[in-house]
Amino acid sequence: MITLSGALSSVEIGGAENKNCIVIEVKNDTATSATTRITVTLGCGSEPEDLLSNKDESVVTAIYALQGGEEKELRSITSGSSSKSWRTPEVEIPAGSVLSITLKEFKCETPPGDAKITVIHEVKKTAAWEKTPESPAGLKLEKRLEKPDQLQLRYFRVDPDYILHAGSQKVTVSFLATGYGTAFLFRNNEQVRNKEQDQDGWSQKQQTINGVITKTIQGAIEDSPSITSIYRLSLRVTPPGTDKEERKESSRTVQVMSSGWNRISLPQGSPTRLFAVESDFETGKSAKVYGIFYRKWYADWEKKIGLRSEAGLYSSVNGVDKWDELPGTVPKGMEASPGVYYGNRLWLIGGSAADENPDKMTNDIWCYLKNESTNTMEWKKSDLQFPPAESLLPPRFGHSCVVFDNEIWVLGGYDTVGTPFQDIWRIHTPDKYKTFAWASETPEQARWDKRCLHSSVVVHAGNEETLWVYGGAETPAGTPFFDLWYKRKGEDWQKRGAITAIVPDPGKPLGSALLAYSDGTEGAVERLMLLGSFAEWKPDKSPSWVAPDKAELGNRISSFHFEWLERTGRWESKPVVDGWQQFEGENFSMQTLAFNGFIYIYTLFGDALHPKEGAELVDLKLNIRIP
Fold first, then answer.
1. How many CB atoms lie within 10 A of CB 335?
2. C-alpha to C-alpha distance for 8 and 23, rounded to whole angstroms
3. What is the pLDDT, as a whole number, of residue 611?
4. What residues contact residue 581 under an 8 Å CB cut-off, 6+ apart?
5. Which SS3 state, helix, strand or coil, does residue 358 take?
6. pLDDT digits (tens, 9 = 90+) for 43-54
């Protein structure tokens, strides 16, 4: 009943990943329709029977379809540490019809051999699933080496490419090359001895691959680096008829992180919005960090000509681990808009905080959610929107968004004619996240002054939650506020203490943000924190002593990490050793997130996210504090 399509079911080791494709066909040979589901599992590791090098390796396209029917996305399911699995939903296969499963566009960077694919076929009888006699089926898949005599580095991998704590985790370094005579591996310019062959370097070995006698150089070692390490592979060959040795070198880096602050450059670009998602959209079980990243590149990097940019959505287990790109195109102009996770969807609301261009001040609301008819994730403009003349939420930027009292709260901001807001708009769900509506046609007016570019956060302590608002300014370039306000459910806004500025004064916030932090342990109470980069005032020129418009800055910037102590009504300063990347811009340029004990900091510095053509690109990093 289960057959493997031969024409498309072979892959190339280290070749063009867009050509790799597996097609599995399940035919219903019975006289009646069958309710069935299929589970496909691939091995992940460094053995010949493994197809993927690790379970985080991306399979770009995974689809299933009934014969002659529409192709639908095939979702991955939780699998073991050395495997990756996909399962179809419940599918009705008519008599004599075929269900096809296709996995394509993936890398194959594992040793030569026949990869094993496990296929489990289940049929639904009454209310229970039963495996058929053919299940599980072990299918062999041929892994090819095209042009086996060609000089080529097929793959050079270091897994994983990061370690959270120095010297406590092993990494595997593996490589495969054809056409070369010898290879030498170096770690931080020190040669790594080949223990397997009891010699300094790796030499050719002869093996039969796909019926062809092939000479390859193949190696693998385990290592436990204690510092960030660069592994360099030097491949060498002396062409026939010459005595001149040719070399090809390639490097891979393992980033070794320690407890404290770490600055990470990510290949997908600069972060503009991070979300802590309680149950990820893929499995509905594990919590993950979701992030929008702004990618930018030049068509001609040397001349800095033809700047293009776009944003993509990614997810990661902890922000340090591999980030997986997710389907759907992030709405143009909303890449850095304030947003929240609410009702099992991501929300982006209003104008982008990184754009002070009035043309980009908007009241658009977009959600990232599952399309139930296609079973795919997509960005969709919210039906909370109305024609511009009738819209409830006035266009704005520089506002903040939080989830408080099981509602989305949109606080403050700055409008298209240069007026700041002190309004609060609320979105609620009257029917357990099936629909969403405005809580009121008229907004609440806060007690705090009109402001934009402020920071807001909700702190949970037991059954009580508190909404906090800090800082901001009346205008984007105006003198910053230093006040701290809070609100509890059913109570009015209160200003925290007679003196809410931090004493001693750390200076003007170049980037600062409130954070609700928990160490990630069960039952831990969240604490209010304030993190920021502050420019010191000149002596006797701070806002505490002179009029705000006469305040002058000194020449020093410092990073600070404060925790609010409710019992004393004061800020406790925590040391910041080798802190985060320094920020430019105003109060709202800095963003924070806490997730499973990790702290994340990133910036929305507009000139870096939207550089002018020919301008030098700024590498905006993701700053992570590891507990």
1. 25
2. 6
3. 66
4. 263, 603, 620, 621, 623
5. helix
6. 998 889 999 988
What's the pLDDT at 547?
A: 67
Contacts of 331 (CB under 8 A, 6+ apart): 348, 364, 366, 379, 381
| 550 close to 530: Cβ distance less than 8 angstroms | no
For residue 284, what pLDDT is reported?
66
What is the helix, strand, coil percentage profile of the chain, to 5?
5, 50, 45
DSSP class of residue 44 equals B
Q: What percent of the chain has pLDDT over 70?
A: 88
Q: 3-class DSSP state for residue 223?
A: strand
The per-residue pLDDT for range 79-132, each reduced to its tens digit, is 777 889 999 998 999 988 999 999 988 889 999 888 988 888 888 887 788 887
Q: How far apart are CA 451 and CA 400, in angstroms?
A: 10
**Secondary structure E strands in 265-322:** 270-277, 288-300, 305-316
At 370-420, the pLDDT tens digits run 887 777 889 999 888 766 667 789 999 999 999 999 999 999 999 878 889
φ, ψ at 550 (rounded to 5°): -105, 0
Mean per-residue pLDDT over the chain, rounded: 84
Handedness of CA 546, 548, 554, 560 (dihedral sign): positive
Within 8 A by CB and 6+ apart from 516, the residues are 457, 458, 459, 460, 526, 527, 528, 529, 594
Structure tokens at 376: 């795919």
Q: What band does 457 get if pLDDT is binned at 50, 70 and 90? A: very high
CA–CA distance, 308 with 297 (Å, rounded to integer): 6
With residue 606 as reference, give the H or E element that holds it. helix 606-609
Position 6 pLDDT exceeds 50: no
Over residues 573-596, the pLDDT tens digits come to 988 877 676 554 444 578 999 998
CA torsion, ordered 367, 372, 378, 384, to nearest 10 deg? -30
Residues 423, 119: Cα–Cα separation, whole Å: 57
Please state the pTM of the whole predicted model.
Answer: 0.73
What DSSP assignment string belongs to 125-173? ETTEEEE-TTPSEEEEEEEE-SSTTS-EEEEEEEESSEESSTTSS-EEE
Average pLDDT over residues 213-231: 90
229, 125 contact by CB (below 8 A): no
Structure confidence at residue 499 (pLDDT): 52
Rounded to the nearest 5°, which phi and psi values hold at 607? -65, -25
Residues 6+ apart with CB under 8 A from 588: 353, 398, 400, 452, 453, 454, 455, 472, 604
Token couple for 527: 């604490």
Residue type, 335: E
Helix (H, G, I), strand (E, B) or coil at 541: coil
Tokens of 353: 């905080």
Cα–Cα distance for residue pair 591/624, rounded to 1 Å: 12
Q: How far apart are the C-alpha atoms of 337 and 381, rounded to whole Å?
A: 14
Return the C-alpha torsion angle 447, 452, 457, 463, nearest 10.
30
Phi-psi region of 434 (alpha: psi -120 to 50; beta: other; left: phi over 0): alpha
Q: What is the 3-state secondary structure (H, E, C) of 499-532?
A: CCCCCCCCCEEEEEEEEEECCCCCCCCCEEEEEE
Burial environment of residue 342 by CB neighbours within 10 A (0 to 12, 13 to 18, 19 or more): buried
